[in-house]
Amino acid sequence: MVNCLDPGSGRSPLHVAASNGNIRCVEKLLESGALVHLRDELGHTALYYCGFRWLRLVGWRQGHGDIVDTLVSAGANLGGMENEAGYVGLAVQNAVHAGNEATVDIWRRAGVKLAD
After folding, report:
1. Which terminus of the chain has a lower count of CB atoms within 10 Å, N or C?
2. Comparing C-alpha atoms, which of 10, 30, 32, 9 is closest to residue 18?
3. Predicted model pTM
4. With helix as H, strand as E and coil as C, how does the chain read?
5. How far is the C-alpha of 101 from the C-alpha of 96, rounded, in Å?
6. Residues whose CB is less than 8 angstroms from the CB of residue 43 and which lie 6 or more positions away in sequence, other chains included
7. Bigger pLDDT: 52 or 19?
8. Which sequence spans correspond to the domains of the chain?
């Protein structure tokens, strides 16, 4: 059940919990065998949605930074569709240009390599 996919979006419970910033739910799902590399119909992982959700928020929302750390500790990384399509690069570039250090830190913690 922890890896079941929504028929409409292809998202798993881990995708939803990470996107919504629910660290307790993310931890419980991981303890129950949720797959961190599971991708939805768009090819995105829970880590991507956690970072992307943070990018779209106006202010710091409690939980997203901790969730990034938890997912990365569980083996998650940003790769594949996120990087190939340029979504992550664009998000990082926008954060850097806006001087939004908190957002840049979220992406760095998610494993994004930043240009010097």
Report:
1. C
2. 30
3. 0.75
4. CCCCCCCCCCCCHHHHHHHHCCHHHHHHHHHCCCCCCCCCCCCCCHHHHHHHHHHHCCCCCCCHHHHHHHHHHCCCCCCCHHHHCCHHHHHHHHHHHHCCHHHHHHHHHCCCCCCC
5. 7
6. 80, 81, 82, 85
7. 19
8. 13-109
**How many angstroms separate the CA atoms of 60 and 28, rounded?**
23
R_g of the chain computed on alpha carbons: 13
Pick the residue with more confidence: 13 or 57? 13
Distance CA(85)–CA(80), nearest Å, equals 8
pLDDT band at 56 (very low <50, low <70, confident <90, very high): low
pLDDT per residue over 69-92, tens digit each?
899 889 887 765 555 456 677 777
Domain range 13-109, CATH class: mainly alpha
Q: Is the model's pLDDT at 28 over the cut of 50?
A: yes
